[in-house]
């Protein structure tokens, strides 16, 4: 065609996980929450609909920022709202990284990071995790071309975390800001909000897709020091969050009792899933997210994924260059999880 920028024609593009359009599936492939969101969310959206949609929404989500600030222990001007945390990642890439400059990311991790760099015409510098999913010291190495670093914590697909002490050291040594992507932090034992207060280079992104069971709503936010938020606000779309998502997000973050109860259920099932997979001979690192990563040396894992799909259970099969293939399984309800695990055991028995 020749109409598009060379960077766009060259990239493969981000491919989301399977979203089946027909038939009844148990979906354990995209780390969605298996439980319905707080009932307060639907009620808030209904009330907002009654007010009409003929006017533009609040461009900065003031009400959400006020309540989120109370929950997180910061001030409202430390928060930037986004159309999902992917919107936040896009804003950051556009705001910090120019054509030919570098964006650093670990690998294996969220593949959208690299896509965003490619769209921007930037170079993505990938630093491989160690075999045990620890982060090498080289991630904090300074470089003149480096303008931004992305670090998911907990990481996907492993569910593992980088210690806060190491994150402090990395931020101190980097010449640029670092975004700690905390999409799964509500399922973890700790988070990095306090690090944002210590260092203006440290920013944290969150999403309501996972721990708030609102993947279909599309809402995320950034926590950063006010001088960073002020500049990034110039980059975002004028009205990047619609009135219904703002109403639902406010109701969701206001119901912290629901979040705590949901976390307890997910974490309990995660522990049971981890133990069962290990009993079946899989290697499973301790996860701090709402999924587990499982490998099994000597056993091909793609046939397991295919067997589950034939039986209407979706998980994520992943293979990265230079590392062992693996399967990532989202935490479902206890019933969904048992169906998945029983099928895996059945496959292994039939193919032993």
From TrEMBL:
<comment type="subunit">
    <text>Homodimer.</text>
</comment>
<dbReference type="GO" id="GO:0000105">
    <property type="term" value="P:L-histidine biosynthetic process"/>
</dbReference>
<feature type="domain" description="Aminotransferase class I/classII large">
    <location>
        <begin position="24"/>
        <end position="341"/>
    </location>
</feature>
<dbReference type="GO" id="GO:0004400">
    <property type="term" value="F:histidinol-phosphate transaminase activity"/>
</dbReference>
<keyword id="KW-0028">Amino-acid biosynthesis</keyword>
<keyword id="KW-0663">Pyridoxal phosphate</keyword>
<dbReference type="InterPro" id="IPR005861">
    <property type="entry name" value="HisP_aminotrans"/>
</dbReference>
<dbReference type="InterPro" id="IPR004839">
    <property type="entry name" value="Aminotransferase_I/II_large"/>
</dbReference>
<dbReference type="InterPro" id="IPR015421">
    <property type="entry name" value="PyrdxlP-dep_Trfase_major"/>
</dbReference>
<keyword id="KW-0368">Histidine biosynthesis</keyword>
<comment type="pathway">
    <text>Amino-acid biosynthesis; L-histidine biosynthesis; L-histidine from 5-phospho-alpha-D-ribose 1-diphosphate: step 7/9.</text>
</comment>
<protein>
    <recommendedName>
        <fullName>Histidinol-phosphate aminotransferase</fullName>
        <ecNumber>2.6.1.9</ecNumber>
    </recommendedName>
</protein>
<keyword id="KW-0808">Transferase</keyword>
<dbReference type="InterPro" id="IPR001917">
    <property type="entry name" value="Aminotrans_II_pyridoxalP_BS"/>
</dbReference>
<dbReference type="InterPro" id="IPR015422">
    <property type="entry name" value="PyrdxlP-dep_Trfase_small"/>
</dbReference>
<comment type="similarity">
    <text>Belongs to the class-II pyridoxal-phosphate-dependent aminotransferase family. Histidinol-phosphate aminotransferase subfamily.</text>
</comment>
<keyword id="KW-0032">Aminotransferase</keyword>
<dbReference type="InterPro" id="IPR015424">
    <property type="entry name" value="PyrdxlP-dep_Trfase"/>
</dbReference>
<dbReference type="GO" id="GO:0030170">
    <property type="term" value="F:pyridoxal phosphate binding"/>
</dbReference>
<feature type="modified residue" description="N6-(pyridoxal phosphate)lysine">
    <location>
        <position position="210"/>
    </location>
</feature>
<dbReference type="Pfam" id="PF00155">
    <property type="entry name" value="Aminotran_1_2"/>
</dbReference>
């Amino acid at each position: 065609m020749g109409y598009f920028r060379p960077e766009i024609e060259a990239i493969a593009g981000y491919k989301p996980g399977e979203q089946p359009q027909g038939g009844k599936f148990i979906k354990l492939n995209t780390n969605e929450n298996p439980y319905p969101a707080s009932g307060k969310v639907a009620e808030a959206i209904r009330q907002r609909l009654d007010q009409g949609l003929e006017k533009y929404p609040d461009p900065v989500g003031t009400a959400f920022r006020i309540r989120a600030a109370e929950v997180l222990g910061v001030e409202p001007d430390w928060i930037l709202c986004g159309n999902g945390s992917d919107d936040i990642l896009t804003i950051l890439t556009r705001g910090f990284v120019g054509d030919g400059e570098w964006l650093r990311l670990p690998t294996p991790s969220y593949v959208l990071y690299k896509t965003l760099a490619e769209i921007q015409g930037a170079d993505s510098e990938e630093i491989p995790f160690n075999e045990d999913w620890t982060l090498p010291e080289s991630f904090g190495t300074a470089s003149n071309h480096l303008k931004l670093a992305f670090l998911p914590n907990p990481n996907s697909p492993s569910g593992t975390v980088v210690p806060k002490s190491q994150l402090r050291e990395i931020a101190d040594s980097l010449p640029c800001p670092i975004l700690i992507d905390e999409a799964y932090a509500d399922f973890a034992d700790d988070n990095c909000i306090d690090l944002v207060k210590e260092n203006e280079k440290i920013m944290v992104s969150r999403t309501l897709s996972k721990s708030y069971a609102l993947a279909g709503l599309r809402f995320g936010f950034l926590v950063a020091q006010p001088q960073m938020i002020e500049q990034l606000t110039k980059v975002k779309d004028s009205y990047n969050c619609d009135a219904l998502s703002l109403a639902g997000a406010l109701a969701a973050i206001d119901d912290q009792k629901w979040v705590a109860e949901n976390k307890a259920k997910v974490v309990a099932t995660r522990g049971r899933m981890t133990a069962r997979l290990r009993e079946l001979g899989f290697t499973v690192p301790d996860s701090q997210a709402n999924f587990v990563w499982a490998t099994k040396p000597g056993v091909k894992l793609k046939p397991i994924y295919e067997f589950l799909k034939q039986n209407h259970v979706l998980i994520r099969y992943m293979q990265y260059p230079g590392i062992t293939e693996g399967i990532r399984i989202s935490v479902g309800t206890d019933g969904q999880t048992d169906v998945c695990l029983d099928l895996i055991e059945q496959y292994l028995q039939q193919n032993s």
